[in-house]
Structure formats: structure tokens, C-alpha cells
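We keep the chain:
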Amino acid sequence: MKKPNVIMINSDHQALHQWTFYENKPYRPFFEQFVEEGAEFTHACCAAPVCGPSRRTLLTGLYPHAHKQYHNETNPPYSDEVYLDSLAEAGYRNYYFGKWHAGPGCALDHHCEGLSPEEYGNPYVTKEYKDYLKKRNLPAAAHRIERVFFWADKSQQAYQKGSPDEVPRNGELFKLQDPRHCCEAAYGITVTPKETLEFFFLSELACEKLEELSADGEEAPFSLRVDFWGPHQPYFPTQEYYDLYKDVSYPPYASFSSGLDGKPEVYFTEKNVPIGKDNRIVIPNALDWKAYEEMLKCCAAQITMIDEAVGRILDKVKELGMEENTIIIWTADHGDGLACHGGHFDKGSYLSQEVLRVPLGIKWKGTIEAGMKIDAPVCTVDVPVTIMDAAGLTYKNSVHGESLIPICQGKRKPEYAVSETYGLGYGEYVKARAVTDENYKLIATLGQTYELYDLKADPYELKNRYDDPDYRAVQAEMTKKLKEWQRETGDNIPFFH
């Protein structure tokens, strides 16, 4: 039997947890249809809430403590097996479009064709983007900035190296080919057609490649991976998508005004002005809720845009009759702390549900039953192992992830999932691990307060139960699980010595 084609869709920095508590959730019709035709993992978490470590995990099936991409500032050379290389060795034709940000090099160094700028990259300065605009008679993408919340400093990743420190101001029209950095904590409206944005640019590249593959008659299987830069901040939907949410009311998020009682020091770290001063979060928050509400609206609109862009790819797969022998995985590298725990803008060094939970769906017609909702805790470390399993391959080196396919087939049910962080980098270094099961969550941060949450009774993680006598048995059980995971993965951080 011919090996299946593999399609992986990966968005960046996608908020999920927050939206479960709001009636007016982001419209995701294509994702909802996708999981109706396949399986949805409702309790999926990322391996790490930081781009570089998480994205390298999605390639290697290893946690950061093993692949050594601890945060965005560490970029060790690749020494572990990357599933893209293994697929190519097995006869797959690999195509990759989008963001890399997973250590040195890019996807083109791992037997892929397509578009893959090195490091973080900026799609708007590539030749491919310029050709795309010319072919479709489109202007270069531009935003009208409504608000920028802080000025970038030299620690902030600019779209291009060597960009000046000056950043755009409120009310300015900002072109995405501008070498300046717009700042991540910003929002506004894209004033050019939606097709000028990287979401639809990458989607179009992927659809064109699918058409080529359908027409060439080649028997060899292919893998196609699309890694969007969005919905990562800053949030700049077009007017038509913003209008879907402009009249929606989002009440203050439950942990927005939290005083962070019982939290470790990592929750107090915040470099972004004005909500941070001297690298500590300002409590109570320096901004009123209205500013966050506007960000939520723009964030929701951007999630909807990503959904449509992915939908175009999924529709193309159906149109070309490729569904019968193609496994499709749709997920994100990590979540987004937007408005949580004192009003953080971004992900952080903490391991809250907001930064850990990610969407995850798998569709494989004829192999995975349609309409499955799987509540068992899983982790994105399992995704590349699942791809290898679908292709009939195994990693040559030992890995930490396990295939999700047996879970979909009722052959395995994981008891817990683990995430880890070493902080964001930029002079900050943290060692923390979170173990989550269906009911509870234990977070161990070396040298700081440990956390234990009853996720059923306290889904916002407002009450730390670690020292609560009523939860001693739970604490012991969750500690046992984390120690077990440490032994199995070779993680030697001395949390419990």
C-alpha cells in the first residue's frame, strides 16, 4: 500500500484557553468542520510556551531539556533526528511554507522545498512575496496602527536585523516591509486586502503546490507543512474581520485583576511597558480593561482569518481528491497569555493554562473515526512521532513523544501530559515543569513557590493548593507523575531533592 501523504498545519501563538470562558468565541468554522471529520484533542498542551523550544520539539519529538533549544536565544546545531529528513530518506517529497524559528538554518536545510526564511524571518521581504503581489496586482501589506503599548528595545526581535530602534507610533500607517519593528503588543487594522497578509500568501503557495502535485502523476508520497506567523501579536485584522467582533462585549478576564497571591516569582516578571516597570508587572494593571478588550477583538478576528486561510488548503485537498490517503494534523506551537494573571500581554516564563493549551486536530479518512472528542491529556511532543508512525517509520534515536494514532483508535489513553520552560531568555533563566492530568495540575519552578491547581473547580488557576492539607494526596500523586516523567525522559532538574 502506498504510504500516506502528510499535511501539517501549524499556527503561532494561538490563544485557546481564554476563549473557552467567553460566549463570543472566535469563529473557526473550518477547524470545527475539520475535527467533525476527524478527531479533536480537547486537552492538548504544548511542550514549551516559547517559540524556539516548542518548534524544535515539533521536529524532533524531544523536550527542550534534550534537544537543548532552551529558549529563543539558544540555537545549538541540530544533532537529533528531524522527521523531515527521515521522510525524505523514506522517499517522501517534502514541501515547507512559512515560519521556521526552530534554531539554526531553516526547513530548506532538511530536505524541503518551498519558502522558509532563516530564524524568525519576515515573509514580507521575500522574493516570493513580491512575486505573489505582482502576479495578483496587489499592494504590499500595510496596517493602520491604533495603539502601540511599548517601545521596542534591543532585546526585542525585529523583523530585520539591524533595524533602527525607532518604532511606529499610534495612528501611523505601517508597511510590513518596513525594516522597523512594529512591536508585538500592538493592535489596529490592516488597510490592504486580506490577500496581502502572510496567512493568505502562504495558503496560496500551499494550494499551488497541491495542484502541481495532483497534476504531476508522481507515485511517491509527499509531505506538506504550512507554518503561519500568525495569529502571533501584533493583532491587525482587516476591517471585515474586525467588524465580526466590534460590537461584542468581553468582560474582564477572571485573572486579569489578580494580585498573584500564592504565585511564584515568574508571574511577576514583565518587561513590557506600561504594564511592566523595572521588569516587574505593575499591580493593579496600568491599563484599563478597554485596551485589553480591543486586543481580544483583534486577536479573535486574526484567529478567524487564519481559520479561513487554512480552510482554503483543506478545500483544495478535497477538490483534488487527495483525502483518501492523506493524514492532516492541525495545531499551534503554544498558547497566548493575553489578559491573564495580572494582565500579561504575552506568553511568559510561567506555565499557566493560557500559554500551554493549544488546538489539536487530526484527520485521516478511513483510519481515524470522524467526530471523535478526546479529553485525555496529550502534548505537542507527540505530533512528529505521529507523523512518523503514519509513514510507517520510527525515529532512529529515542524520543519522548508517542503516536496519537493509537489514542484515536482506542488502544491507548495517556494519564497526564508535561510541559517545561527555561524562560523567555533575554537574560532570564527559569527551570520549571508542569504536569497536567484530567483534573489537576502541578507546577514545579526550581527555587520558587510550587503550584497545585484543581482544574475542575478552579480553571482560571486562581487558588494555589500546594500547601493545602486537603490536597496532600493529590500533591503526592502529581509529584509521583512528574518524577516518573523525569526518569523516563532523562530530566535531571532536582525539583524534589
About this structure: Residues 289-319 form the longest helix (31 residues). Residues 13 and 42 are 17 Å apart (CA to CA).
